[in-house]
Amino acid sequence: MEPDGAGDGWVRPAGKRRRRRRKKGAREGSPELGSVELQRRRLQEARSELQSSEFWDSSLGTILNSLRKHLLAGRTDPEPTVEKALGALENLCLTAPAETVLEPTTQPPQKPNGGVGGLECVCYGVGNFSSCVKARYQLAFLLLLLQHLEIPENRCFVFDPVFATLEIEVLRDLGLTVLLENEEGKRPVRDPTVFYMIHCGKALYNNLLWSNWSAEALSKTAIIGNSFKGIEERVLTKIFQQDYCYIAKVLTATHEDAFPSHRQYLDVFNDTSVHCFPLHKLRDLPREVWEFHEEPVYRDEDQVEIVRKKQ
User: Fold this and answer.
1) pLDDT recorded at residue 271
2) Which residues contact 85 (CB under 8 A, 6 or more apart)?
3) Where are the domains of the chain?
4) Which of 56, 101, 199, 290 has the fewest Cβ atoms within 10 angstroms?
5) CA atoms lying within 13 Å on the CB side of residue 239
6) Confidence class of residue 307 from pLDDT cuts 50, 70 and 90?
7) Burial class of 42 by CB neighbour count within 10 A (0 to 12, 13 to 18, 19+)
8) Other CB atoms closer than 10 Å to residue 239's CB: what's the count?
9) What is the pLDDT of residues 26-48, one digit of tens each?
10) How many CB atoms lie within 10 A of CB 55?
11) What CATH number is given for 36-89+113-303 in this structure?
12) How far apart are CA 144 and CA 129, in angstroms?
């Protein structure tokens, strides 16, 4: 996501007025505009606002219902991590927990297998939350979701090539694991994993599906991001089937639940859905669907909508 603010650099104006005047009542050592403390306070404000909204309650209900309903769909003998995740989700209430303050986290509490629910989380493309209000609300939503799903912060892996040094520092201060390598979305899952990918490029979703192209792997994958149905409607059929073939192939085996529409957050979470892949639907796909497993190649590099990793 592109930030709403100015460019990367800031040039100090020439002349005598080089020292900023301290605000009335400010103390030495008080946070400057770009400080970690100030960014945490802004995130806390966004988090509190979201948590008290009808949008959060409805969205959380959509996510929990999707995960509970499809995590074990079609399984006769679930593996331990999947069974554990479903059991924990069954015990979660649909009301948000009591609000907590974003205190610095140097060593997050350890929970086996990625938390009470055995879930992991991967977040791609949240954007420059220090300067972009939309990105800040998206990150605040993620923090609320981690709390409610009881996923330890260090089991949430975050990456965006546009992160500034300050933003990486803030994320680490929150206890999140910042990925240093651009995976281009090609991350295989082992345990049940929620991918949080709001407004990411089509190629990123396609790459993620390719890297988990089996019924077992996809059935442990949930994607919160741009509507797959919406992508199909907006992209020409030929391009959709050639350039984004993994989205096209799995579409009939995808259960998609749209986020509720809320005027206040319409431009922040528009076109967002929860995507789950029930095992029985995946197993019903023709064999030739799974036999084709070539790594995606995008012909028009200028339209890929993702930042490629440096060679």
Assistant:
1) 95
2) 67, 71, 117, 118, 119, 191, 192
3) 36-89+113-303
4) 101
5) 13
6) confident
7) middle
8) 13
9) 443 444 456 999 999 999 999 99
10) 21
11) 3.40.50
12) 16
